[in-house]
Amino acid sequence: MALVHAGPAHSRKIPTRGITAMSDDGCEEFYDAPAMPENDQPEDAAPATREPPEPEDFRGGRTARPNDAFIAVMGVTGSGKSSFISLCSGKAVRIGHTLEACTAIVDVYAYDMSPDQTVYLIDTPGFDDTNKSDTEVLSEIAVWLGSSYKSKILLSGIIYLHRITDVRMQGSAKKNLLMFKQLCGQDALKQVILVTTMWDKVSQEEGTRREEELIHTSEFWGWMVSKGSSVRRHGHNESSAKELVHQLIGHSNCITTDLQKQLIDENLTLDQTSAGRELKSELLKEQEKWAKRLHEVEEQMREAIKQRDQEAEEALKEVRDEYTVKIQRVEQDTVALRFNMESLISQRDARLSKLQQKMYDEQNAHTAQIKEMNEKVDILANRLSAEYMHSELEHHHKRLKPWHCRKGKLAFSISMSGVYYTCISPVITRCNEGPGQTPASGSKQLRSVFLGKKCGESPTWLARYSDGVEMSENLKVEYPRLQEALATHGVDHLKACTLGPNQTYYARWKSSWSSNVPDNLKNALKVYDPKKRDGPRIVTVGLGYDGAYVIAYRNSRGVKPSHSFTYGLKGHYQALKEILSKKKNLKIVAITLNPENATDFIIIWEEKANKGKSYRMQCYSQYETVIKEVETWWNWR
Fold first, then answer.
1. What is the pTM of this model?
2. The domain 56-267 belongs to what CATH superfamily?
């Protein structure tokens, strides 16, 4: 299905049953076109079952008003049609052959000339389109003009653009002009403005000479000027463009082109119209040209076969096949002219539907290709990232001195959230947020701090002291279920706590525990039962971004290994994954996952030493200052 492209701010794209057009009720008298008899259609024509579009379809959804006017803008590709329309409408006019450009080859843009009058500018293709044959272009224009005519839409005039930079009127420019003359007809020429563009690219003297040649040469513009067409220069600015439009709107009468009369009033097929006959004549000349060349190539092929020149024969076969294809295309284009108005619409819809599907398929294939390439890039990026993280971890690991303990065990508390952290060792507390910033007084000793989700500029926190617990004022807002658990179990015997994102938490008391986590994680936490003295004990829990987690256990005596852990990082915390995957029997004693991002963590684990045990630490953070400060804390003795 084709889409109308309307340029103004209030316009919208709407379905138009395979054509793009605009309507106008503002012209004076109009008569209903007679219906086409069924027996006047060619034998291979598609059945005419399609009704003409509603008038409002020609305005891109705008309501029809009495003073509305329609002006067609024509000319060869590159003559400045798009920029001219853009200067008037104030909207960018699409150029090229995207999906929409191919399915709506005739576009309409609204120019609000005054509060009570809108001028709809019709952007038409030239007969030199590299992606469309001349037959397709004529069919598109015929569908638009015929459909609008049947819907009581008449043109106020036509603006025909020509590059003054063209040295001579030849090739596509000459062909385009011949088709334009036949399409318009003599009666419509009095409301045609022939406009030269790109005067800034030639000298005034040279431009004037070429302009005079156009005006005084009958086969160029001379005949049209004698029939009432006017000649103007376009200065490539807004005022110049609008002045040309205003000149046409000043006429009180509207025009009917020969193509409209012949297709609708006379019920002719496209090849019987003046424009169609002109194009058919060009196609026959083209067919004769290719047929002559084909004959010459075939003669050369016979000579090559006679001379047993296989290389020349193969080369000539390619040329022969090329000419054969060109002849077939010309024949197809000639046949495509043998249709009436309704059949043209049906054929166009079918052609555009096929083209649209092809382009959607290509777009999907392109999307799939991009997806595949992105996946490969991600794999490579992850590999490089893993190698980089491994190098970084090794680099930091060498800078960190281990803690040694001959008897018993050392207690550490670590927590981080965003750029904030708290780290507590047996000899020093270091942090940049929370109660650790204020030294404890008297016998009050800070044992651990748990940072949670940020609330405003600072994270929530809960601190465990030697004589009780303190918490931030926003804890009950960000973690309401934890607040309820603290009220139920009390705060005096709280042993451990972890705060995660989205109100998730884990808290353990002397004889009970509580959590607000997904079901799969809750099952992993249930292995701890305070009533079973020989069951595994949870040492530490880390709750991170997007549901990531790490749980470390201490198993009962006699159970190997003595320590174990489980984790689900959801594809995040790649540096941590490298550590956990390489150290299967890691004795984790403390861990924190940053709930605000998917990379940062701190982990402390225990290793056997010659005398007693040693403790190792690894910190990974997006923030270099955090890494330096945590390493300073760890190396402090």
1. 0.50
2. P-loop containing nucleotide triphosphate hydrolases (3.40.50.300)
Beta carbons of 551 and 508 less than 8 angstroms apart: no
How many Å apart are CA 456 and CA 468, to the nearest integer? 26
CA distance 139 to 337: 8
Q: Which residue has the tokens 């609708």?
A: 264
Q: Residue 374 — pLDDT band, cuts 50, 70, 90?
A: confident
Under 8 Å CB-to-CB from 495, ≥6 apart: which residues?
A: 508, 509, 510
Assigned token pair, 459? 């994270």
Distance of alpha carbon 507 from alpha carbon 492, whole angstroms:
13
35: exposed, middle or buried (C-beta count within 10 Å: 0-12, 13-18, 19+)?
A: exposed
Pair of tokens at residue 567: 């984790």
Query: What distance in Å separates the CA atoms of residue 56 and residue 153, rounded to the nearest whole number?
Result: 11
First to last CA, the chain: 77
Q: Round to whole Å and give the CA distance between 309 and 590.
A: 85
The C-alpha atoms of residue 225 and residue 216 are separated, in whole angstroms, by 9
pLDDT in tens, 544-588: 999 999 999 887 665 667 678 999 999 999 889 988 988 777 899
Q: What is the pLDDT of residues 580-626, one digit of tens each?
A: 988 777 899 999 999 999 999 999 999 887 788 899 999 999 998 99
Locate the domains of the chain by residue range: 56-267, 283-339, 343-399, 400-635
For residue 259, give Cα distances in angstroms to 146, 188, 192, 271, 273: 8, 11, 15, 11, 6
Q: Calculate the CA dihedral of residues 253, 257, 260, 261 and round it to 10 degrees.
A: 80
